[in-house]
Amino acid sequence: MADPDSSKRVTLTQVARAAGVSVMTASYTYNQPSRVSDEARAKVLAAATELGYAGPDPRARSLRRGTSRALGVVLGEHLSYAFEDPQAASFLAGIADVCAEHGYGMTILPITGAVDDAARIRTAAVDAFIVWTTTDDDPVVAAVRAMKLPAVVHGGPAVPGLGLVSIDNRAAARAVGDAAFAGAKRPAVVSFPLTRDRERGLISGPDTTRVLFPVTRHRLEGYRQAVEAAGLAWKDVTVAVCRRNDPSEGERAAAMLLAGPEPPDAIAAMSDQLAAGVLQAAHTAHRSVPGDLAVTGWDDAPNAADLGLTTVAQSLRTQGSACAQAVLGQEAPPDSPWSIVRRRTTRP
Fold this sequence. Notes:
The chain is an alpha/beta fold and 348 residues long. Strand 9, helix 12 (272-284) and strand 10 form a beta-alpha-beta unit. Helix 1 (12-19) packs across helix 3. The chain folds into three domains: 4-56, Orthogonal Bundle (434 Repressor (Amino-terminal Domain)); 67-165, 3-Layer(aba) Sandwich (Rossmann fold), CATH 3.40.50.2300; 169-313, Response regulator (Rossmann fold). The protein has helices spanning 12-19, 23-31, 38-51, 58-65, 81-84, 86-102, 117-122, 139-146, 169-181, 214-229, 247-258, 272-284, 302-307, 316-327, and strands at residues 70-75, 105-110, 128-131, 151-154, 163-165, 187-191, 201-204, 238-241, 266-269, 294-296, 311-313, 339-341. The protein has 14 helices and twelve strands.
């Protein structure tokens, strides 16, 4: 028996020579076994076992076929985010559903702002790209577009030549903002990051044209519409910007808002994760919900019902599936459905 380490050096040509057959016959043994006699196939497999040949290199096979049978998911977060954030995990599950149905694999490409982000895109052995929501100025979007492979962006930005799967974030924010700010005099927002710098901060009535995450920008625009419809001024609304989608970030932001000289009486949070932190901060500050403070979230995650949270219901799993279907050439709707779920954290 050959040394196992020598399997790295064994070629199909060597196997064919040892079996006393042509290279084509040896190749057919692995790729089209129905075209090889039982006797010839047995000789090839016996020679392969003797030489320690494990089979054709899948990378070489991908090059010959011009396909890798894998979808690349460009995730603008650390890799652990894919497993820790429930909505990111749901989105990936939707992609996985379609991959399993069509015999594809999934390659996650975490993008963290490093100088080699674009190179990671260029060297990815995938047939198509799905880009997790990112900013208008993210260079990886240009890198994806330059690959000239099927590609779709989830959430935004909208890029010529690339597909887009999203909900109408502006309309949904206006609707949930109406619920959050009903009867309020001092509304506030707990927000996703505004730019790729992901800086925390408190901003009064931010200029949304400077917000580079389209999802964040459109939600702020919808909240602004709700504020103005309630007869209030956007310039007086404090927006607490979080670095990431995490309950601890929501709690930190809400604690800062509630400790101010004019604490809010309504907070619209851009996710249920952030809203869970807001509710914890309200409990710590002895503020009743919704009496002293109305709170809304976004996603209708599994914990939203337990929290009694008024929220925007959307299915990230369905959106993940739609992204995968789009890059595989199947028709997918440009806008996904959403609805408002009213529970006990908002005033009647």
